[in-house]
Amino acid sequence: MRTELQAKFIQFINNRKQSEKGFTLVELLVVIIIIGILAAVALPNFLNQNAKAKQSEAKQNVSAINRVQTSLRTEKTAFTSTFDVLAIGALAGNSDTASTVNYTYTLTGTIDTATVIAQSKDTSLKSYTGGNFRYTNTASQSTVVSAVCETLQPGTDTAVVPTFAEAAGVATTTCGTAFTQLGT
């Protein structure tokens, strides 16, 4: 009797499985809701990473410009104010401005200071500034100090270049009030 009951149960399960193919509406809605929740959580993170990737372009270019300006100043008597002298990849031209998809770069150079502004074209991106300052240190040697600054908030507000001060042979750099200093 027992084996007969088991056989009928197995037959019942097999018959039920064959007739229950497909998804119910509730199962489908649960899957759609789960996918929607995952998308709602992941999308802001993805957009933030996209902005960070675009901003890294400006950070790298401003840092590269600072390094090249420092090198040029050790070889020449003044910083440059044209991009063709710098010879940095995507930034070229015989003028003081250059442009990429996301940023407009403006360069100035004098005997003792050089500045670069990476102004964002998109309100979701931060702007960057950089600068170099040549001064004479306590050992009476010509020295160059650099700074890279980042806006605290994204936007297309006009960027402010860092300021430099020198007292008793020691130089200090300061970013604007809406900026944070990233490095030298």
Key structural traits:
alpha+beta; 184 residues; single chain; six-stranded antiparallel β-sheet; two-stranded antiparallel sheet; N_methyl_site; membrane; 8 strands; Prepilin-type cleavage/methylation domain-containing protein; transmembrane helix; Pilin-like
Could you characterize what this model shows?
This protein is an alpha+beta fold and 184 residues long. It has one domain. Helix content is 40%, strand content 28%. It has helices at residues 2-19, 25-75, 83-86; strands at 97-99, 103-109, 113-120, 128-136, 142-151, 163-167, 170-174, 179-183. A six-stranded antiparallel beta sheet has the order 1-2-3-4-5-8, with helices on one face. The chain has a two-stranded antiparallel sheet with strand order 6-7. The chain is rod-shaped, with a radius of gyration of 30 Å. This is Prepilin-type cleavage/methylation domain-containing protein.
